[in-house]
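Problem 3 from the worked examples.
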Amino acid sequence: MNEPVIITNTALCHDCYRCVRNCDVKAIRVMNGQAQVVQELCILCGTCVRVCPQKAKGVRSARHEVVQALREGRRVVASVAPSIPAFFPLRSFAQVEEALKSLGFHAAEETAVGAHIVAQAHREYMEQSIDRWPVITSSCPVIVNLVEKYYPDLITHLAPIVSPLIAHGRILARKYGPDAFIVFIGP
């Protein structure tokens, strides 16, 4: 699936160009009177989504694919971001897990599990890599995208460690099987 992550609703885009002015990597171009994200230049930071007063920029949703997987009876497993309490009044993760299971999910676990493993891996890498300093942690995909696209001379300083989401996804795939449909739920 090579669909754009940042999408533009052209009906809502009204020539304010705030996204163009605020994009630090200049990944937005005006084409046919519309501010469009240039995918090859975009680092997926979401600034354009946050600054758009008309809400014309958004993040592509995979909701349809998740609903389809649930309808097909696939084993759908959620990796849930630690930020979920910021969006829902929760007392425990068990409430999230229960709600997702009631929707047909097979299981739900916290992405923080992956974050803990990645933090340990970064600590070990730092201790073993004193000669490669500075080390840029690779937990944030936006930073990795920025380095790879705009500062390739710094790639050797990126820690060769996957993001917490990828680490957790791999854990879930091992735990629930290669046919599990892994879903990330986050902001």
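Problem 4, a separate protein:
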Amino acid sequence: MALKSFRPVTPSRRYYSVADFSELSKKPPEKALLRKYISSGGRNNFGRQTNVNRGGGHKRRFRLVDFRRDKLNIPGKVAAIEYDPNRTARIALVHYADGEKRYVIAPLGLEVGHTIMSGENAEVKPGNSLPLRNIPTGIAIHNIELKRGGGGQIARSAGSSAQLVAKEGNYALVRMPSGEMRKIRMECYATIGQVGNPDHKNIMIGKAGRSRWMNIRPHNRGTSKNPVDHPLGGGEGKSKGGRHPCSPTGVLAKGLKTRRVKRTDKFIVRRRGAKVGGA
């Protein structure tokens, strides 16, 4: 994959860049694997805005992507690499030997005509899904389960991957894309390889209108709003706000840990951002 830039005939085109989509092989998606996608505009079931700065956006349809990879020991042939408007990664349309068709996350190096498979006896190559106990240490993996049968939850975005560091007892030690070290049960499945489309991080939006296409509305500072709209709003002229920085609902924005305690915290060996070794 490569990026395509443009001649700066307008100010917005100067830094505008898009993917060249050269790796895609099919335009229309598989109709049986599409579902209706309704944009919420950041509003909940009562119609109240719970997520700000969202709205508009291009119409899209949801693709049913197989994150579970539970079609065991049945080989599938990659029929197409397709674009998915709902995620940064590309998706691959797989035709299985029993006639079923499914979408999977397309790893780097997977091409049309390749054969992939899930199961304990699958070969260790990009696109194949195996239990962590059957994957050699040091291998890059993605679409990793945290609970057996729950489907892949870790490392699913474009260019991301985790690394299988070690195995001990019933647990495998995995280095997450964030740098966090976490223990995961050996029976959990993961897919070999790095997620494709690694150049996505280098794309330049280029203009405000392109953000609107992606369902992102303009964001402005709390201090520039009225008192009715934000706790930091109001005041004569440019004011500092008169209180500590916070969200529109009053939640402190600096120095307060917002991550809730989860029952899986005990499996975290090292937090992300933690210093390794001595100072």
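Solution to problem 4. The chain has two domains: 3-200, 222-268. The first strand starts at residue 3 and ends at 5.
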